[in-house]
Sequence to fold (491 residues):
Amino acid sequence: MTGKTPLEFYAEPLPDVDISELQGKLIVIEGPDGVGRTTQIERLRVWLEQSGHAVLDTGMARSALAGKGIQRAKEGNTFGPITMTLFYATDFADRLENEILPALRAGFVVITDRYIFSLIARAVARGEDRNWIEKVAGFALVPHAVFYLHAEVKDLVARVVAGRGAFDYWESGMDYGFGKDKYESFLRYQARVIRALDQMAKKHEFRTIDASRPPDKVFADLQRAISKIVPAASKRKPVRPAAASARRARRPG
Amino acid sequence: MPSPAFAPNRYRGKLIVVEGIDGSGKSTQLSLLSQWLRSQGFAVAFSEWNSSPLVRATTRRGKKKEMFTPNTFSLIHATDFADRMEGYIFPLMKAGAVVCADRYAYTAFARDVVRGVSRSWVRNLYRFAIRPNLAFYFRVPLEVAIGRILGGRDAIKYYEAGMDLELSRNVVESFRLFQGRILEEYDAMAQEMGFHVIDATGSIEEQQELMREIVMKEIGDSLHNHVLRIPEGTPNDR
Fold:
């Protein structure tokens, strides 16, 4: 499978975007908190760059416009579920329009740590209307591939404890009060997020990878699948000068 | 009744909103109305467009650096609105207050569509909003509104003038064109949304009298029977 070429929007094409200009590849890594997305993405980036691909990696709450605002709001612990969903949607839109699209125009491989699916899953887990948020996110591009790192809640617990040493307020869904304490709330909240992601797997053609296995095995699966999506170095056209401009187009911090 | 899929008002409280282009006089009228409601002993609260403390810094950043696209402009205002809904309006409505909102989702329906966002998308975006009990639209000819704006205040800002639409390089001209298009959107949705249209060229007193009549006619009974009342002697100046 080579993924969808050319790219398309789900429902609401953004004005002034010429789909045929988007030469790059859009690859999504999805999965719940603590499943190991960040580690895998870092390794994928190194591997792809060593193979001669220009890579943009981006992820939730990293936009120039809304990243800081979301951080501040999280610190205040005063986020309603609709507000949170829309703040993250704003963040996503800013990154899509100002980072992802320019990078795709320039022929980059874009790897995004989470996509609209996490946004939808978190909203659904908090009892918001799935249909509402799916329509809101309709301006997103259909990616070339969505890799869903799948694990059960019990696997996440072990990783969170080992990796972070504590349960995070938001990762535990404490804002919604799913349980008496962070551990109980984490179990219930993450189970709901996983269920919501599972429900999207078929419709959105997720490629599910069992992430309860050792990271090397997960990486090998990702590598194998991604090498079929990004053109092999030998078959690629010479690097075009446009490739450099996407980096410059990225706004600082 | 209004067609967009707003959430029905299941609360004791009542929601009254005013809409119209800049310079239509809607804020003055809402202020007079809320004072009158307070004087009758009702617990009245007030909510303004674009005023959530949670989102303020982000909006300011985007405006200052001119970072917004039509899409992100629309989304950040919806985020602001959601925060006021969840943090302020829902609880007040539950408590039984009369909430007076200066601009509501309709402002986004008009402005964002002028900026190129699709009508159906932005209407869905605000589906979580409570359907107002009363929505007043202050209709004013463009030139009258422009005259009021230019006569009485500071320089028009970049996004206010719709400069991002590149309609004109001249701020005043851009503002005129932008507001003109917004006016058309308001007019086009007036029936769909069930607006009570007020002729905003009339005297302030006439408009206010009409507003009060409509309030009593439409929701007078429930005001007197259901909403929260302030115990006598309690200050209620918020």
Observations:
- Chain B touches chain A through 29 residues (CB under 8 Å).
- The mean pLDDT of chain B is 93.
- DSSP finds eight helices and five strands in chain B.
- The beta strands of chain B are 14-19, 44-48, 98-102, 134-139, 196-199.
